[in-house]
Amino acid sequence: MAEIRVQVCYARPDRQVLRELTVAEGATVEAAIRASGLLQEAPEIDLARNRVGIYGKLKALDTVLRAHDRVEIYRPLVADPKESRRARAAKKEEQKAQ
Fold first, then answer.
1. pTM (2 decimals)?
2. Which of 7, 35, 52, 83 lies at a C-alpha separation of 20 to 30 Å from 73?
């Protein structure tokens, strides 16, 4: 069976992990993540909760990989980006009023 090269990456606040590996052609995103060993190294990763993607685009765990894909495991957001933007805008308006 043919094999393809892919990367699996995960970024923690303190460091980034990038693994290059060879998987069977037809392998899924989930299969590559499991083969990378990241689930053992980073126990905070929960594939039922963490979102995943390929090159910044969200994908399902059963997405079939192509050669040279970079699988990314995303951490949950700490703050809602829309709320953060609203808070910054409100603070800026406050400063203007003073």
1. 0.77
2. 83
